[in-house]
Amino acid sequence: xxxxxxxxxxxxxxxxxxxxxxxxxxxxxxxxxxxxxxxxxxxxxxxxxxxxxxxxxxxxxxxxxxxxxxxxxxxxxxxxxxxxxxxxxxxxxxxxxxxxxxxxxxxxxxxxxxxxxxxxxxxxxxxxxxxxxxxxxxxxxxxxxxxxxxxxxxxxxxxxxxxxxxxxxxxxxxxxxxxxxxxxxxxxxxxxxxxxxxxxxxxxxxxxxxxxxxxxxxxxxxxxxxxxxxxxxxxxxxxxxxxxxxxxxxxxxxxxxxxxxxxxxxxxxxxxxxxxxxxxxxxxxxxxxxxxxxxxxxxxxxxxxxxxxxxxxxxxxxxxxxxxxxxxxxxxxxxxxxxxxxxxxxxxxxxxxxxxxxxxxxxxxxxxxxxxxxxxxxxxxxxxxxxxxxxxxxxxxxxxxxxxx
Length: 405
Known about the structure:
mainly beta, 46% strand, single chain, 1 helix, five-stranded mixed beta sheet
């Protein structure tokens, strides 16, 4: 057993105790920390809606039709012609009066000398403008429904008629002349489109030149939709990139416009309500033309100075762009069904048949064609009506295409 010397014990006992140091930090009694709430992930942004990307397909290789198209005069000495796909037609003579041709081909004389005629989509009435007044007549007999002040008569899908008074647009119900006019809103120019299935008109909004919406030099910042009793809809277009000369598809779902890129005119298209603009064609000449009953578009590209240009068709359903051929024409149109393309004005007329790969000329080498309208009387769909300039007046011609077996 160990023994401690008494002397050592005395030393230890006499040593002073060390000074006590107090920690001034207060004692905190923390409870159990709750688990943090789960972090919700940011909602995934849906991809931007797109029409494309559009792809360039092999060019059409057209062959001359083995049978020629024929052009037969229907009426001469005309100043104006309006027609519908259902068979109604209004012919305004240069010297004689105005004639209404109904679906059965019967003719009715109208006491009008209009500057412009617009037929309702359902063929139930016509609006004839003359000197700031618009007369509305019921079809087929041409019974007068009334006359209103206004410009730019445009039929809406519900059978009402939109008119412009200065910059104010109103909608009237010609079948109910005692019904007050409804306000649509304000815009100083003509509409781009009367949207099918709705009572809405679409306009191009340009801050630089508000009355020059059809002028390719006026930049367009947005599309404006006006309808009776509804809040105006505005769809911005290109943001900081100036967009020019917008066009809307037949159903209003697609908008195309031109931008300038390094001195080149670039046509771009997107869904009207938003999304990504898809490049369609560069060095665009003239205005693109939509089909009346299909998501297809005609566009020409080439040199503005020399007039050399190529015609292309854009099929948005198939997402392809195809070259039709070299043309010297200035106007183009789809025939009903969008399987035939007519090139006219500037050279002998041509009809490109997309389903057969055949091309048919019509008219003479020096004919000057200025309009193409439907021909319901043709029945088979193998004919159309065209206006050929003459001196001093134009004539209406029926172009009969070769029948295909």
